[in-house]
């Protein structure tokens, strides 16, 4: 089943990128972005589509991994190298990743669950606290 989700993510990222973000720009009412990280072991670029919310100038994503006991690889990559890029629509934006502190997570978690209730089920499936991550533009309005 893991191969299936990997194929879906890869196909989504390809279609999103080729269409300039017009196709696959939202899923279930949540806007989507492409996050490109540097592999912490391979050093290669890895791109994943993620739903997001806006918090002031920052994009907010959630490292749910569908409630898996482990954090997703992209989150581990962010911890190793927090300077990454996102594609939102046609724009590529340099961002710095920062995991939300307890207060920020609680506030953002409620917004995320209200928008996409499945995240609550994902949290119920796992003993780990699912991280909420800010992706903060390096220079507001400046494209990478």
UniProtKB/TrEMBL annotation:
Catalysis performed (reactions): oxidized coenzyme F420-(gamma-L-Glu)(n) + a quinol + H(+) = reduced coenzyme F420-(gamma-L-Glu)(n) + a quinone
InterPro entries (UniProt xref): F420H2_quin_Rdtase, Split_barrel_FMN-bd
Q: Which GO terms describe its cellular component?
A: plasma membrane
Q: Which GO terms describe its molecular function?
A: coenzyme F420 binding; oxidoreductase activity
Which regions span the lipid bilayer?
A: none
**Which residue positions does the secretion signal occupy?**
none
PANTHER family xref list: F420H(2)-DEPENDENT QUINONE REDUCTASE RV1261C
Give the family this protein belongs to, as stated in its UniProt record.
Belongs to the F420H(2)-dependent quinone reductase family.
- Kindly provide the name given to this protein in its UniProt entry: Nitroreductase family deazaflavin-dependent oxidoreductase
């Amino acid at each position: 089943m893991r191969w299936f989700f990997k194929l879906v993510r890869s196909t989504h990222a390809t279609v999103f990128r080729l269409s300039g973000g017009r196709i696959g720009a939202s899923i279930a009412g949540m806007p989507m972005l492409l996050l490109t990280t540097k592999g912490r072991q391979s050093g290669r670029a890895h791109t994943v589509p993620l739903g997001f919310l806006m918090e002031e100038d920052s994009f907010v994503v959630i490292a749910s991994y569908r409630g898996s006991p482990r954090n997703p690889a992209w989150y581990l990559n962010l911890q190793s190298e927090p300077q990454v890029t996102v594609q939102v629509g046609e724009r590529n934006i340099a961002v710095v990743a920062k995991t939300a502190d307890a207060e920020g997570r609680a506030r953002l978690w409620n917004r995320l669950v209200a928008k996409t209730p499945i995240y609550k089920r994902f949290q119920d499936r796992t003993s780990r606290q699912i991280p909420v991550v800010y992706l903060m533009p390096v220079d507001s309005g400046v494209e990478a």
